[in-house]
Amino acid sequence: MTLPALFSTWFTANGWHPYPHQIEMAALARKGQSALLIAPTGGGKTLAGFLPSLIELSETPPEQRRGIHTVYISPLKALTADIARTLSRPVAEMDLPVRIESRTGDTSAAARARQRAAPPDILLTTPESLALMLSWPDSPALFGNMRAVVIDEIHALYGTKRGDHLALCLARLSRLAPQARRTGLSATIADPATVAAFLAPGGEARRVRLVQARAGAPPDVRTLIPSGMADSEDWYLPWAGHMGVNAAQAVLSRIRAAGMSIVFVNTRAQAELIFQALWRINDETLPIALHHGSLEIEQRSRVETAMAEGKLRAIVATASLDLGIDWAGVDQILQIGAPKSVSRLMQRIGRANHRLDEPSRALLVPASRFEVLECEAARQAVAAGDLDGPAPRPGGLDVLAQHVLGMACAAPFTADVLYAEITSAGPYAALARADFDDVLAYVEHGGYALRAYDRHRRLVIDSLGQYWVRNEQVVRQYRMNIGTIVEAPMLRIRLRGGPVLGEVEEYFANQLTEGDSFVFGGEQLVFLGIRDMAIEVARGSGDRPKIPVYGGSWMAITSNLARRVRALLHDKRAWPTLPDPVREWLAAQARRSELPGEGGLLVETFPRHGHWHLVAYTFEGRNAHQTLGLLLTRRLERAGCGPLGFVATDYVIACWCLREPTDIAELFSEDMLGEDLDDWMAESSLLRRTFRNVAIIAGLVDRDLPSRRKTGRQITVSTDLLYDVLRKHQPDHILLRATWADAASGLTDLSRIAAMLRRAREGLVHRRLDHISPLAVPIMLEMGRERVGGMAEDELLAEAEMLMAEAIAPATNEPLPDTGHSGYRSRERRRPPADRTAGGRADRANRS
Amino acid sequence: MNTAPLVLGGARLLLDPSGALFWPEESLLVVADLHLEKGTAFDRHGLILPPWDSVETLAALEDAIERHAPARLLALGDSFHDAGGWARLDRVLKARLLAIAARIETVWLSGNHDPEPDPELPGHRATIASRGPFVFRHEASADRTGEQIEISGHFHPKARMRLRGQLIARACFITDERRLILPAFGAYTGGLDVSDPTIAGLFPRGTTIFMRGRHNIYRFERAAA
């Protein structure tokens, strides 16, 4: 196909040639063929997605158009505005009669009303705004003549609940406009076939043509290896940790040597620390800024603007900058701390250099020895193009519940027709009718356990079997709660008598007491109190600032990358690329114990400081390890080992016990995911958090009531109660099923525990050592510093009670030194030795 | 369930993880702040507590009665969340409460939420009760110069501890040799931190607190503020 004269002239006038993939996309569109385009950054991807629509519109006089021609969906609001600007150039230069407008949560009410009355030709929007428009009764008129839907950055949506939501909306769009083709755009996709199936109507990948653009120059990825020289600016290589603060000097010199850098880190807390560390030594006052999701939006956009204008030398950023508007001038990216995911690393590398034929430059800065291995593994994976995508998973039932209500808001439906529509969405292609009926029943009346409650009745059925939304209030509530992104409960931070600085998780705020200081937005702040739903602070310093902790922001190492780390450990031929200290460390491990194998599972036990330690080299990521730690300590308890606690990193888990664990194979047997799991489910605060998200997505509780804003805490408290109620009275409620489904990944990552247990069955190696092994040193150093996230509260209380009693064993009436931790201390204890039990609860009458 | 012993005024008391207090010598079970029908009270204001609180509270009470087999039951006030609580109580639950009062000598002290319990509520009423070395009332009195040791409820005391980075908040008993405050027994009850001046001011010489666990009571000493 050749482009129409108007378009080829425009390309020539600008001194360009259309890329082959741009021509191919236009040709496929002519045939109404859906397509998935994978093109590197700087490869004309956006234009390739829009060119077919611009051509069609140039051939259709405005008076013949009815409704929207093309819907463009982006995961980011900011991107829609940027695309509008990008497209305005060809439209203006070719004088095309095309109206392009964006419609997001930020669009003004006046503009929204105008768009509804006179829709633009090309509508740029987000999945959430699309869902809102599809709940309008007049949505058929708006979308009925649509010819194309374009989904940008599709990899950021695929495999997530937002993706499920979008797939459902696409199914509805196809029903309204069966003639419309679908186009997916992405720069990085691990497995194009699964994404094609996600994009395709009916989940059939063959209905989507894959278009692969020529790859750009391979990226230049290096690892910053310390020189080991005490007087050099390089840092020595720490045994443990993941913050990378030691590297500040080396990082600053790399910033100085380049024009503009993005310094990516893994968590907000780490961003704060690194930003502080850089400014402490930034004697030349290079303009270095900070960007993360907790900062006020105005603050973030000021930083983004400064970056776009080239006024900055570096931004320290979290995932908040993974996606976003392209900045042409970025020379390099630095990744401090191990990258955790190859796909995310690729995404981040793509933020540097948008010239197709020059390599993007990236520098990985490992924070500790294990992280050196991970950085090296990631470097090799990038070179091999071995990305890690999410495993295909069925669409969430909570998302479906939200969508079903939305569809009822648009028009009454019968169950059969809606079921057929839903199963034409890729993630729901295999949805069983029974599950659909349960979801529908939940939307109708809340489910068996909640049907007594009037507020949960949202649909009514007429004599024809059609479901109607019950009243206007239900519609209003639905529209205020659209979307699948659930924020952790946050509190605003306000300077006393001054502006709002940003937000922190309420969880962190609850741990502060007056006078505590912490670092936020690069400043040291002193906590004064909580007032009017905000944390009041003053500028100032304390002795030891706490750092904001953001529970949800930790990304665990992906299975793919973890497998590569295991292979690297195992394969001595790969070691020459590793720095000396790491090589010596691994060699010592091989001598003193052994190296973890590629498959199987290595477990070491050894005595230390009067306790027995168990260290398992599981490599399943921190989230899975937190859950595993809880399950393991339960088993150790039953085996009579007297577990005292555990600590987990992305690579290793360690438990310490009063007595020696001996039957390690039994400990790691596969039935761990049976009864122990049930007990854990009742208690786990992570599952409660998962349930909270599910309950909000499914509309069981509101994010915002029309009358007043609920605080996250109010929601948390009431969803905790609902969780207990449903567990007790209707354990198969669809929201609990949705919660269990979520537990397989994410914060609890149960599927990875299952994978680890399978490896253990295939080859468990237990080494009983006389003392600690070299590979166990990092995890032992984490002890006492890391929060033991999963441990049951009661066990902690029992431990504290026992430790305090032990610490002050002999009876005494003298005043005692305060233990400093919480204002509590243990006094004399009468503990008759005869009664002493393993749990140290001798002073209780046993009555059960 | 493992109770914890507490000797107060020469009497040997057992603190139950449910939040109840049992005095074996007198076969007396004491509970505070049941707040029955709190869920339905809130629902009328548009909040969304699930309807199962009374079921749970009553089941816990029956369980405690089962385990201790008391001859007497004393509720320290705020047994119902509001004046209409008894009327809203489910028919089956009313029957269960009647069954308890028929077997066990039951006394309801009045609290600020239920100053005048519904006339239909089975059992005796009082504003204050006295037995052995103890005086029982809903809310602790500021002045504690009398001879008697005071046992009360009202504040829903809870204690917070930071352990291994986790903040653990639990309902608790709080006591010194002059008085004892019980945790709330009800299923949906919040709490007031023991370091709050309202509670801490009642214990000028430091306290012992007993935190409720799932199966155990955990004992800690707390220095005076």
From TrEMBL, chain A:
GO molecular function, one term: helicase activity
Ranges for region Disordered: 808-848
Keywords: ATP-binding, DNA damage, DNA repair, DNA-binding, Helicase, Hydrolase, Isomerase, Nucleotide-binding
SUPFAM superfamilies, sorted: P-loop containing nucleoside triphosphate hydrolases
Coiled-coil ranges from the UniProt annotation: none
Sequence ranges assigned to domain Helicase ATP-binding in this UniProt record: 26-199
Domain of life, source organism: Bacteria
Classification via Gene3D superfamilies: P-loop containing nucleotide triphosphate hydrolases
Domain spans labelled Helicase C-terminal: 247-398
InterPro entries: ATP-dep_Helicase (IPR052511), DEAD/DEAH_box_helicase_dom (IPR011545), DEXH_lig_assoc (IPR026362), Helicase_ATP-bd (IPR014001), Helicase_C-like (IPR001650), Lhr-like (IPR017170), Lhr-like_DEAD/DEAH_assoc (IPR013701), Lhr_WH_dom (IPR045628)
GO biological process, one term: DNA repair
Record family assignment: Belongs to the Lhr helicase family. Lhr-Core subfamily.
Protein's name in the database: Helicase
Organism annotation: Acidomonas methanolica NBRC 104435
TrEMBL record, chain B:
GO MF annotation list: hydrolase activity
Superkingdom assignment: Bacteria
SUPFAM superfamilies in the record: Metallo-dependent phosphatases
Coiled-coil stretches: none
Gene3D superfamilies, A to Z: 3.60.21.10
Domain Calcineurin-like phosphoesterase: 28-123
UniProt protein name: Calcineurin-like phosphoesterase domain-containing protein
